[in-house]
Design brief:
Length: 190
């Protein structure tokens, strides 16, 4: 599948690896959040154009902060946190207690993967799903290659923290499609 990726899409994947490798997260895998962080770093690509057109250019740090907060909550979305609160479970209190005992960011640790034998972080299930969705988005648009814009669209359709954070910042699947393909565009992720 990677042979179908444009240089921009490959750079997003490389950037996602860099976020994992640079965080000192031994045994961590590349997740959708890392793909989003790498997209935020892009300039001069279709994906970065869409983000800037939707007003995210000057609010990138706000997105990064929202991703950090979700990571502190062990990757729970705000919707999941709210649902647990409805059951009487205060996630912030749990995070505070764990961090008091084990240190700040204790719940942000990644799960073990096959990095120990490959020397490189692997893709988590969520990141693989995003990349597969990006292929479906590209095919739906009749694009021969997968660009970083297709990765962005895939991130907006996959339930989880990246889609929630993007939506909270006004970046939804519909708004990205509108910017990239006009009002008649129909990028579907399947």
């Amino acid at each position: 599948m990677f042979e179908r990726f444009t240089k921009d899409a490959r750079d997003v994947v490389k950037g996602a690896y860099a976020y994992v490798d640079g965080s000192g997260g031994e045994g961590r895998s590349v997740e959708p959040e890392h793909l989003l962080l790498a997209l935020l770093d892009r300039e001069g690509s279709r994906g970065s154009f869409a983000l800037v057109a939707l007003g995210l250019g000057e609010r990138r740090e706000s997105v990064r902060e929202a991703l950090r907060e979700a990571r502190r909550r062990a990757g729970l979305t705000q919707a999941e946190t709210d649902a647990l609160a409805g059951l009487g479970i205060d996630v912030e209190e749990i995070v505070a207690r764990v961090e008091q005992t084990h240190g700040v960011g204790a719940l942000a640790g990644g799960s073990k993967d096959k990095r120990w034998w490959s020397g490189r972080s692997s893709f988590g299930r969520g990141a693989r799903d995003v990349l597969e969705r990006s292929l479906r988005v590209a095919l739906a648009q009749r694009d021969r290659h997968i660009g970083d814009e297709h990765i962005l669209l895939a991130l907006t359709t996959r339930p989880g923290v990246p889609a929630e954070v993007l939506a909270a910042h006004g970046v939804t699947h519909a708004s990205v499609v509108r910017v990239l393909y006009g009002s008649g565009g129909e990028a579907k992720a399947g």
